[in-house]
Amino acid sequence: MVFWHLDMHSFCFSISFYNIIIAYCILVKQMKIHSLWFVCIAVRISLILLAAKLIKNETYKFVPLTFLSVIGLGFLYKAITGSNNETQIAKVFWHDTRIVHSVLYLLAAYYCFKKNTTIMTLLLSADLLFSISYRFVTGI
Fold it and tell me: Which structural domain, as residue segments, surrounds residue 109?
């Protein structure tokens, strides 16, 4: 059950713990989604938030740039050299989308270098939404 609370200063959205467990069970059992997929999504959300915060700090601005560049180049390398027959805990289903992830992460790194937080977070959010939608559209 979803509860919406609207007041003058904030818009709060809360989901009961019970409903989160139900949704998790449905996704894991019905769609056969591995539990680590949720960890992947959580890490990527954290990366978006952390990159947006660190880009503003002169001392640590190179950290998100380095992470985004390495991730983008890693996706590009695996898109060129990898295959759909490899296994990472389970069979890799996202091989065909590695080039899309690579482009989005490398563009995010570029905009991180340019200190454009808005475009960088939009690109990383688009990558996250693309991953989630790809999973549900393909039903893999």
Answer: 32-138
Q: Per-residue pLDDT tens for 54-100?
A: 888 888 889 999 999 999 999 899 888 876 566 555 555 666 788 89
| Cβ contacts of 125 within 8 Å, gap of 6 or more | 48
Provide the 10 A C-beta neighbour count for residue 20.
10
φ, ψ at 95 (rounded to 5°): -55, -40
21 CB neighbour count, 10 Å cutoff:
10
| Residue 50 domain-assigned (yes or no) | yes
Summarize pLDDT for 20-51 with one digit per residue, the tens. Answer: 666 656 665 556 666 777 788 888 888 898 88
pTM: 0.72
If one counts the domains in the chain, the total is 1
Give residue 110's pLDDT.
Answer: 95
Whole-angstrom Cα distance, residue 25 to residue 67? Answer: 32
**Is residue 1 situated within a structural domain?**
no
